[in-house]
């Protein structure tokens, strides 16, 4: 039973060593350990705060990026719409210009055709008149080849003049 009930000297020396160890630990080791633990706790809390701030900034940046993307899409759509309108307007202007040019060409062609037609008709009339005169001359020469025929024609013309 000696093992279960300690001796008074053993208790004294054990208590003294414990108290000395407690004083030495408190004086020399406890304060640095506490300061390092407190510093670590402060660093951890600062890191957590920074993480929260960073997370909030990331959320804000993400929202800002989404807004920028929306604005960029809107601007892109506006630019595409403007480009389409410009292309359509240019096509319509080109069509209108081509139509007016073709109308001018058609009008010029019609005018040229009309002037050519008028010239051709005048030429034809001239040729018909020349041919008519030639035919009439040949007929009159044939009919007036004799003196009797010339006298009879002169008398007939005189009668026609007198009747009028």
Written account of the structure:
It is built from two helices and no strands. By secondary structure, the chain is mostly helical. It has one domain. The radius of gyration is 65 Å and the shape is rod-shaped.
In percent, how much strand structure appears in the residues? under 5%
Alpha-carbon Rg, integer: 65 Å
Calculate the mean pLDDT score and round it.
89
Main sheet overview: none
For the termini, the CA-CA separation is: 190 Å
The poorly predicted ranges are: none
H/E series: HH
- Structural class call reads mainly alpha
The helix tally amounts to: 2
| Shape estimate | rod-shaped
Structural domain tally: 1
Number-wise, the strands total 0
Outline the secondary-structure elements.
Blueprint: H1 8-143, H2 147-163
Question: Can you give me a brief rundown of this structure?
Answer:
This protein is mostly helical.
Keywords:
single chain; 164 residues; mainly alpha; 2 helices; rod-shaped
């Amino acid at each position: 039973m000696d093992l279960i009930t300690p001796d008074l000297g053993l208790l004294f020396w054990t208590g003294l060593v414990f108290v000395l160890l407690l004083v030495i630990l408190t004086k020399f080791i406890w304060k640095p350990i506490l300061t390092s633990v407190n510093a670590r706790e402060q660093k951890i809390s600062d890191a957590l705060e920074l993480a929260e701030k960073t997370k909030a900034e990331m959320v804000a940046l993400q929202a800002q990026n989404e807004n920028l993307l929306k604005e960029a899409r809107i601007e892109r759509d506006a630019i595409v719409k403007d480009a389409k309108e410009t292309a359509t307007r240019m096509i319509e202007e080109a069509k209108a210009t081509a139509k007016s040019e073709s109308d001018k060409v058609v009008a010029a062609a019609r005018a040229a055709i009309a002037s050519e037609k008028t010239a051709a008709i005048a030429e034809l009339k001239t040729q018909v008149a020349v041919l008519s005169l030639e035919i009439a001359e040949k007929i009159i020469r044939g009919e007036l080849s004799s003196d009797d025929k010339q006298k009879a024609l002169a008398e007939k013309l005189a009668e026609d003049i007198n009747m009028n």
